[in-house]
Amino acid sequence: MAKLFFHYSTMNAGKSAVLLQASYNYREMGMRTFLLTAHIDARGGEGRIASRIGIAAEAETFRPEDDLHAMISAAQAGGRLACVFVDEAQFMTPDQVWQLARVVDDLNLPVMCYGLRVDFRGELFPGSATLLALADEMREVRTICHCGRKATMVVRKAGDGTVITEGAQVQIGGNESYVSLCRRHWREAVGDRAEHPGA
Is the distance from CB of 7 to CB of 18 less than 8 angstroms? Predict the structure, then answer.
């Protein structure tokens, strides 16, 4: 039975590398996979999923207005797919997550989503929140804080290294902009959430 999977983590945990390895395993056995990534994030190049360790693969891109069920159905018309892989899944809309659930339920096709759970403010991305609600299985891709504890949060930094606590939820960047931390060190970096209005 096909399932909807959500593999989540903070920045720089190796999500893309895990995705690319899993897709390679299918392809090595002669099975077709369909790779999707957010159009907004072109750090690895337009229409590419790239890992910091140097591996990459071509992928279709999605925008908020795209119907992922229709895209996957069209791809499947060219031959049976074994699995769908979605990188940067946090950038999906809630409707798009539901479209993937329909792919799983109606096309009997497994879908593996990889993305961030929370943003630099400690808040869920809409796509991630819907995946947490709908996924059949969730798996954490772990990375560590500088103290050695498991990192579960991320801070955004300005060019001068100061921590930013306000701003747009989405800002594309890598190591130059984001640092993964455990909750304790995230709280130290941004100030205790009890001090912030609405917390």
Answer: yes
